[in-house]
Design a protein that fits this description.
Transcription Regulator spoIIAA; six-stranded mixed β-sheet; disordered C terminus; Anti-sigma factor antagonist; STAS_dom_sf; STAS_dom
């Protein structure tokens, strides 16, 4: 008897708020979950001027596959003259981004309300092109 095994899929929800697509990701973003989530983010960032907010507050673990996913989404958004914001309030997640030298690469905001406002907050980290 053949057994079909599918890897875990990250749990996420999507909604559009004021023209921004908000993706709330929960659980782990690792080698098993990054590929299907990356495919979904590719779809969301495929059009012109994508406006994407990734709410990472419910993320409990992020490995190098997750970092690659974030960088890919960022690069796709910038290539299409869009905007990507990360919502993160976990010291652990922020430390991972800093340790990977990616803290200054993303626009990181502490809450969803701030991320959905039109103007970046003064102490927000702005995305750096290139």
């Amino acid at each position: 008897m053949a057994e079909t095994h599918t890897g875990p899929v990250p749990c996420h929800t999507e909604r559009v708020v004021g023209g921004s697509t908000v993706v709330e990701v929960r659980g782990e973003i690792d080698i098993l979950t990054a590929t299907p989530l990356s495919a979904r983010l590719d779809t969301l960032t495929g059009g012109p001027c994508p406006d994407l907010v990734l709410d990472l507050r419910p993320v409990t673990f992020l490995d190098v596959s997750g970092l690659r996913l974030l960088c890919r989404a960022r690069n796709r958004v910038l290539a299409r003259q869009g905007r990507l914001r990360l919502v993160a309030d976990s010291g652990r997640l922020l430390h991972v981004l800093q340790a990977a030298l990616l803290g200054g690469v993303f626009e990181i905001l502490p809450d969803l309300h701030t991320a959905l406002s039109d103007a970046p907050e003064p102490d927000a980290v702005s995305a750096v092109a290139g």
